[in-house]
Amino acid sequence: MELRHVRAGVILGSLVALAVVGCATSKPAAMGSGDPVADRQRLMKNNGANWAEIQNKVKAGNAEGVAVNAEALALHAQRITLLFPEGSLTDKSKAKPEIWQKWPEFQAAAKNLENRAGTLRDQAVAKDAAAVTATVATFGRDACGTCHTPFRVPPPQQQPAAPRS
Ligand code: HEC
Q1: Each residue of 12-43: pLDDT tens digit?
Q2: Rounded to an integer, what distance in angstroms lies between the CA atom of residue 143 and that of residue 50?
């Protein structure tokens, strides 16, 4: 009797331990539609829209107003690498295979966007219009183009809101 209880306890304990380990090591459930190409193109479209809005606001003399858009770019940047799982290159995608051959550089390009967008946000929050204008002047090339040039097949026709790269 006693022994059976002990055994049951041991088994239960092991199951609990397994469950705990399982939770700790399993990856969090993937977010999004399950189609990484559609998800990343959606994210990038929103990057394009935010970037267009940033430029329009600066032209209109509203440098402070770009903070919300810069923050959106910084948050999106944190998700970029998650949306490029290995083997997700389909005929609908404009991603280059170099992404997976030079993964650390791709990661660095995403981090670079996160950092630059964070800088732009901070400048806008500080109401430093001169700094915002200076950052925006090179942002398309330095924050977006540095990734598009090596890692994206250039679009065939003019793309609205896409940065020059
Ligand atoms: C770390 C790399 C990286 C950075 C940084 C990056 N992009 Fe992209 N972008 C890509 C790749 C790769 C694609 C192609 C994705 C695909 O088709 O699978 C893309 C696609 C796009 C597209 C086309 C989306 C569509 O409709 O298919 C737009 C617009 C775009 N990016 C805008 C931007 C803007 C604006 C920025 C900067 C604020 C930016 N991207 C920063 C890698 C990047």
Answers
A1: 556 555 555 544 544 555 568 999 999 999 99
A2: 13
pLDDT of res. 11: 61
For residue 139, the one-letter residue type is F
Q: In ligand 1, which atom is closest to the CA atom of 109?
A: 1
CA distance 151 to 103: 10
CA of 41 to the centre of ligand 1 (A): 7
Q: Report d(CA 50, CA 121) in Å as an integer.
A: 12
Calpha distance 3→106 (Å, rounded): 58
Distance 21 CA to ligand 1 centre (A): 37
Task: Count CB-CB contacts under 10 A for residue 101.
Answer: 9
Give the tens place of pLDDT for each residue, 31-87.
Answer: 689 999 999 999 999 999 999 999 999 999 999 999 999 999 999 999 999 999 999
Give 138 Cα–ligand 1 centroid separation in angstroms.
17
What is the C-alpha to C-alpha distance for residues 118 and 78, in angstroms, rounded to an integer? 11
